[in-house]
Design a protein that fits this description.
The chain is mainly α. The chain contains 26 helices and no strands. The longest helix is centred in the last third of the chain and has 68 residues.
Length: 577
């Protein structure tokens, strides 16, 4: 979709380094001699999202002012501003040097806000340079300092950056969940800070982008349109064109290729006008893809080859480069140039192997070391602690009374819940027995009754037979089992596989995969006492789920009870026996 990190915590804009920076700085410095530090910072902020080179010149001049005033705080902050502007140009080496210096100064003056921003920026720069593990470490440090600032907006930034890495490495559903949680919290915050609207636009963009990555253009359009409503093209021109490219991709997924071409050409012309070569990658990709769909192979090839040239020359990490290789391979094959086609196919395979390995490793690290506790609970907990410290004596009596009422209500509710769980458990045991019998006969994949559509398509029949083998081998228990993984195993494409499952299994791939996993969990937990002694997290991982929360929700949705209740009922049943 887009480049790795546009704007602040989620986005980045790349400005050309071909402009003669030194002469610009000299001319501007001459005209800024009379400006105060505060005025220079205001100029920096007004120009950052329009022209990072000009913004950098203001930050440098402000830094010189701060040194002349011998003001440690201003020196530290202006050094951070220089680093931030460098990250936009992009001049990543210079940005890293400046941000490390800013962090050193921030430690000296004990500025938690600057420490948060510095570690967050360093994580962004490292992520842009494909150093995800190092970036995650920086985000974890940034989150700790964000909590010390007592500003929920800062904690939202830290959380969303982890979601961004999940999105880039194809853990899209988890990323969307985190984005939405933080969007809801952001909407509830009572603040007049202009950052609130800025962050809202950025989160909305990322939700739309995540939905596009899993081919849900209608969901993407809902959030992209909401972002467009609050985006002023004149004040946030660069961000406006990012949203326009989302609109182009939405039209592409709706097969409106002429509309996609028109929007992409308009965006490309804008990026050319500001000498922003790197941001041309997304428009070029969709100009190439749309022309390929329209069978204009000779028009498609130059866009895709320019895209690859920009990526290679600038050493940009771009998540959709593999798709560009694939389309170039198909274009050259269509034109009869098989040698060039084969070269691109080799590039495709090499990148596919690399990204699969990196995606799995990064996501494992996130789940093991950086799993996000819902931010709303953290904020509520902090508020409750503060209230208890300030008003403990006043509310103690009422708290005890409320606790008693809650306890009584809980006892009543728990008794009713246990009765319902017992009934559900009995029904579930009957269903599991039928499932086991059905598996022995025909390898049925769901507890619920099936109403299969007659199979008349030979290709579909082959896919269904291959799916049967896939189920028998229990490959659905792999944590990296995705629609793309199964399609690759069955030697087909994701679109056709999804269509077959929807038509003949009468469910989406996600529902199909979840039912397989939950059914297997039901049977194995019933028959394996040792497995029942594992933690819920360990059981979840055993059946292909990365998070215990996701497993519990899916288990409850399919069976009507939580896995802990099911295990307890099984243990009680064993005791009775």
């Amino acid at each position: 979709m887009m480049l790795r990190r546009p704007f602040n915590f989620c986005f980045w804009m790349l400005f050309s380094v071909s402009i003669l920076l030194s002469s610009n700085l000299h001319a501007q410095n001459d005209s800024l001699q009379g400006e105060s530090y505060e005025e220079l910072i205001q100029l920096y902020e007004s120009e950052l999202f329009k022209n990072a080179l000009d913004a950098k010149s203001y930050a440098i001049r402000a830094n010189q002012k701060a040194h002349s005033e011998e003001n440690a705080e201003k020196i530290a902050w202006s050094t951070y501003y220089i680093a931030y502007a460098n990250s936009y140009i992009p001049a990543h080496k210079e940005a890293l040097v400046a941000v490390d210096k800013a962090l050193e100064l921030a430690l000296q003056i004990k500025d938690n806000l600057l420490l948060f921003k510095g570690h967050n920026l360093k994580g962004n720069i490292l992520s842009d340079n494909d150093k995800e593990f190092e970036a995650l470490d920086q985000y974890e440090i940034a989150k700790k300092y964000a909590e010390l600032t007592s500003d929920p907006l800062n904690t939202i930034v830290a959380n969303v950056n982890v979601a961004f890495i999940k999105k880039i490495h194809k853990d899209h559903e988890e990323a969307i969940q985190i984005y939405k949680e933080n969007l809801a919290i952001l909407d509830q915050l009572n603040t007049t800070s202009p950052k609130k609207e800025t962050y809202k636009k950025q989160i909305l963009f990322n939700i739309a982008d995540s939905y596009l990555r899993i081919k849900k253009p209608n969901d993407a359009k809902k959030y992209n349109d909401e972002a467009l409503k609050i985006c002023d093209p004149n004040k946030s021109t660069a961000f406006y064109y990012l949203l326009q490219m989302n609109e182009a991709i939405i039209n592409y997924q709706h097969q409106k290729y002429d509309v996609t071409i028109a929007i992409s050409e308009n965006a490309a012309n804008y990026y050319k006008s500001i000498d922003n070569e790197a941001q041309l990658i997304a428009p070029y990709l969709y100009l190439g893809k749309s022309n390929f769909q329209l069978e204009n192979y000779e028009k498609a090839i130059p866009y895709l080859e320019q895209l690859n040239d920009i990526i290679e020359r600038n050493k940009i990490a771009y998540s959709d480069q593999q798709e560009a290789y694939e389309i170039l391979y198909k274009c050259y094959n269509k034109l009869g140039n098989h040698d060039v086609a084969n070269n691109y196919f080799e590039s495709y395979l090499a990148l596919d192997k690399k990204t699969d390995s990196i995606d799995l490793s990064v996501n494992n690290k996130i789940h093991q070391e950086h799993d996000i506790v819902p931010l709303k609970e953290e904020i509520n907990q902090l508020d409750n602690v503060n209230q208890q410290q300030q008003k403990r004596a006043v509310y103690l009596y009422y708290s005890l009374l409320l606790l008693m009422l809650v306890l009584i209500a809980f006892v009543i509710w728990n008794r009713q819940r246990r009765q319902k769980d017992k009934q559900r458990f009995k029904e579930l045991m009957v269903a599991i027995q039928k499932l086991e019998e059905s598996k022995e006969k025909s390898n049925s994949t769901t507890i619920s009754a099936e109403s299969p559509t007659p199979v008349t398509d030979e290709n579909a029949l082959q896919i269904l037979n291959d799916l049967k083998t896939f189920e028998e081998k229990k490959l659905y228990l792999r944590q990296d089992c995705t629609l793309g993984y199964v399609a690759k195993k069955l030697k087909t494409n994701t679109t056709y596989l999804s269509s077959v499952i929807n038509t003949y299994k009468e469910k989406s791939f996600k529902v199909y995969l979840t039912e397989l996993r939950i059914n297997e969990a039901l049977i194995q937990l019933k028959n394996d006492a040792k497995l029942r002694s594992y933690t819920i997290k360990a059981i979840a991982e055993e059946f292909g789920f990365k998070r215990s929360e996701t497993f519990s929700r899916a288990f409850k949705s399919q069976t009507g009870i939580y896995p802990s209740s099911y295990i307890k009922s099984l243990q009680n049943q064993d005791t009775i026996k």
